Amino acid sequence: MSELLFKHFELTRGKFVNFAGDLEEGIASIQPNGFNNTLHWHVGHVLTVAEQFMFGFPKKTTQLPANYMQLFATGTSPAAWEGDIPSVQELIIQLQDQLARIKEIPVESFNQRLKTPFLGQETFGELANFALFHEGIHLGQMQAMKRIIKANVN
């Protein structure tokens, strides 16, 4: 089962990184009407939430800068961004590094029960699967946002 999960992470993250890597510079910072955030925010959000789910950020990992929670956590907005904001390209590199770290997680970890169920997930494997679900949702949002932005720019 864990091999399938790792393969799914490779597929989902690969699609996500390819999409983010193809974003034109000016497009990533536009917030279209009807959307709460920008494409740039979504890239950082997926990275930050996957870090939380897979590595217990910020308590168990120091792989991401501490300010990522203030920038990219649920409920945050680029309108409130201050300080050092990573570029989309920096976030893409961190997404790729994160995938490599995910693939190093010991297989037996996925059967471990969570101390407290989270969003209906009771094992670490279920939480990992939820991380993939979350990433797919954001990729869909980003695809819709890009279409709307492009339609309004042209």
Please provide the ordered H/E string of secondary-structure elements.
HHHHEEH
Distance between the termini: 46 Å
Order of strands in the sheet with the most strands?
Answer: 1-2
Tell me the number of helical segments per DSSP (H or I, 4 or more residues long).
5
Can you name the CATH architecture? Up-down Bundle
Please write the CATH class name: Mainly Alpha
Counted beta strands: 2
CATH fold name: Four Helix Bundle (Hemerythrin (Met), subunit A)
Class derived from helix and strand content: mainly alpha
* Low-pLDDT stretches: none
Radius of gyration: 16 Å
What is the residue-averaged pLDDT? 92
Quick summary:
With 154 residues, the chain is mostly helical.
Which helices and strands appear, and what pairs or packs with what?
Layout: H1 2-21, H2 39-55, H3 68-72, H4 88-102, E1 113-118, E2 121-123, H5 124-153
Antiparallel strand pairs: 1-2
How would you portray this structure in words?
With 154 residues, this protein is mostly helical. The chain has a single domain (2-153), classed as dinb family like domain (Four Helix Bundle (Hemerythrin (Met), subunit A), Up-down Bundle). 56% of the residues lie in helices and 6% in strands. A two-stranded antiparallel sheet has the order 1-2. The longest helix is centred in the C-terminal third of the chain and has 30 residues, at 124-153. It is globular. The termini are far apart.
